[in-house]
Amino acid sequence: MIGTSVAARELRVASATAPRYLIAIQTRRPKSSPSDPIKLDLQHTRHTGSSFRDVCLGHSTFTNVHLAHATFDDVALAHATFRDINFAGATFENVNLTDVQISQANLTGMKINGILVTELLELHRSRNG
Question: pTM of the full predicted structure?
């Protein structure tokens, strides 16, 4: 397991062979502020079952990272970047998606408020030619 505390402001984990690391990050109240984030740079690794709680991870980078069964509770991810991530089966509740950009994504079965996103995109295309 890799752990960090509020005092550790940056953590980088990278591997070409995608080993499995269990990460548990939790701050003590008050939550780390957006002006003092913990910056993660995770690349080509597996973090199945990792836990992120009550922490600001703004400007973090997740590249080709396996996050199955990972838990993000009360986590600020403003300006974080996710590339080549498998979020299949993930649930996002009570999230702020202001200015979020999604591109080159497989949206099969993805729903927002119970509505299939693929159907919304088809409707948009049909109306805007």
Answer: 0.74
